[in-house]
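task queued by scheduler; priority normal; single chain, no ligands, no partner chains; default sampling; output format set to structure tokens
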Amino acid sequence: MLSVQEALELASSSCGTTMDVTTCGFTPWGPESCPGLEQVMASTPAAAARHPDPEEEERRRRQRRKLSNRLSARRSRARKQQRLEELRAEAARLRGQKRELEARLQALARHGLAVRCQNARLRAEAAALARRLLAIASYAQQPQHKAGVAPAPAAALLGLASLTT
């Protein structure tokens, strides 16, 4: 593609005028003497149109690469920021879950202690009842020494009356 300056120089050379177009402030040709698109394209070398300047092509390639790198870096930073936000949310969720589990663990530990205390009390009570039951059984098997005396109730002897009330 031609620059404006190149187009003006090409047009002034095809019209046959030698005026300095950039300093005049007006175009040196009239509508009848203005070159057409065909004339301008014909005067442009075909090789130059197909094979642009290698330095210019290299500059454009570098610019495209810079732009591509900038966009890639922007996408990378956005992905990194999104990942960081996801990790922060996950950390907050895990901290909340940890607090819930610690509270639950403390409640279960208190309940476990209460159950162990109740177990110990029930075992002690079961042992006492077993001893009393053995005492009643052994008392019932003893022969009565005096024939006319009524035996005392076993429950009264062993103090089991308080257990039945």
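post-processing summary
- Helices lie at 4-15, 21-24, 37-43, 46-50, 54-141, 154-158, 161-164.
- Residues 54-141 form the longest helix (88 residues).
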